[in-house]
Structure formats: C-alpha cells, structure tokens
Amino acid sequence: MPELPEVEALALDLKGRLTDRAIVKIHVAAFSALKTFDPPLSALEGTMVDDVTRHGKYLDVHASGLHLVLHLARAGWIRWRDEVPTIPPKPSNKNPLAVRVVLDNGAGLDITEAGTKKSLAMYVVRRPDDVPGLASLGPDPMTDAFTIEVLADILQREGRKQIKGVLRHQGTIAGIGNAYSDELLHAAKLSPFKPANSLTDAELQTLYAAIRDVLGDAVARSSGLAMSELKGEKKSHLNVHAQTGKPCPVCGDIVREVSFADSSLQYCPTCQTNGKPLADRRMSKLLK
User: Fold this and answer.
1) Which of 99, 122, 130, 183 is spaced 20 to 30 Å from 285 by Cα?
2) Which domains does the chain have, with CATH numbers?
3) Where is the FPG-type domain (predicted)?
4) Residues 12/17/21/22 CA torsion (nearest 10 deg)
5) What is the pTM of this model?
6) Do 46 and 22 contact (CB within 8 A), yes or no?
7) How far apart are CA 203 and CA 189, in angstroms?
C-alpha cells in the first residue's frame, strides 16, 4: 500500500508531468472506483492542471478550480504513459486498469488496481474537504505543526489502545500505514502492542524522533524518483516489515510476525519486546 513517502513522491512526479497540461478525457474502466457524481466526471474535460499535492495518503490534482482526488488503497498504483491508446479501455474484471487520464499532448496516466478486492477510490470535488476520508484526517507527521506535544496529546487521548493501531489510524495521524508503523516502532524499540498512554518521557522522545527520521529519510530517498521506481525503493529499505524469517539488520535476531484476519505485522523480539515473542492470535485459534 502506498504510504506517505510514496504518495509524496508520486505527487512531486505528477506535478512535473501534469502542471499546465489540459485534461482531455478521463475513461473509467472500473466504475466502482468513481465515488462522486457532482460535479460530473465530464467537468474535468478541458481543465488545466494547476498543481498536484498530497493529503495523508490522498493525491490531489488541482484542475481549474476542481479537484481530482485519488486514494490508491492497498493495491492501487499509477503508471505514466508517453502515449495512450486511442481506443477507450473496456470494463473488465480481469484488467487491472481502473481509470485512464488522457492529456492534451497524447500522454496520460493509467491508474491500476491489482487483485480482486477493489478499494481504489476517485473523487471529483470542488473542495478537497468534500472527500469524507480526507476531511477527517489527523495531523500530518511531516509538518512543523506536528510537535512532540501534539504526539503526546494523541497518545494520552487514545488511552490503552495498542500503539501500532494508533499510528496507522488515518483519523489520528495521517499518512502512516502498516509498513511504516512497523518500521518506526522497530526504530523506536517499542512493542506494537504497547498501550499508547503508557510511554515514558524517554520513549515518547524516541518515538517522535523515529517518526520524523524514518518518514523523513524515506521521503528524501523517494524524492525525484520516477513513479516506476518507488515500489522497489521502498522494499529495499524495510528492516522488519515483510521481512518475516530474516535476520534483524540491527541485532541479528529473527524477524517475527503476528497475523490478523486481513493483515499482519512484523517485529524484532530482541529490539522491541525484550526477547519475548508475541502471540500470533490467528495461529493460536487454529491450534485450539
């Protein structure tokens, strides 16, 4: 799933490609992707792209007073095409293409979604806050306004909730997902199951530094990369996420996993849980 660093890089790449270009046509191949009807999709035809920005995990294409907002969800991605086919795409459950944006120079974007679970979302709105999920976003952890005091207030407010879930909840903090919550908790040497309001002052300082450093480093590495390079860049710098069974690059212990119904987390016992493996609750139920 694209998270804050990748979406930031996508916005930068798209800004360079789209600014001052006209949108000629938008073809929707997966009708479930379009979540709005007013303004109509056709209102974007003939508009000029003024800017591309990011809100949490959302991409926002500013076009002549309208906003084309995209949420790539778990399996969505954007591919640049120097030349798009002249024949409009046909709707197909087997085709990963969800949306095609055609520009005035014949180039364009293919917005795709792999897999059968279709969660990719596209909105055409007059204001970004007209998108429900965007309007309820928490603070962006890469802004100057996200201070250690803001983080402390969030953790106290969330009480005994597990810190992993708090970090990746978009209404609490915007932009951090499953992968980077694993990574920054590993960097902060904190258990993913630790209650949010139980951090000591030293642990709070360490977590805040990890959020800024892990995300900041990922943004810096991704900046300037073409969208085709971003997935590989992310995977090559993960220490624990999706690294189950491999040695921790910090201590050499084996990275372990806890599985849930539709996701999993990875962690290092030595670095994060005083050497104690966490119970894999899904496996425990299967063994009963």
Assistant:
1) 183
2) 4-135 (3.20.190.10), 148-287 (1.10.8.50)
3) 239-273
4) -90
5) 0.91
6) yes
7) 9
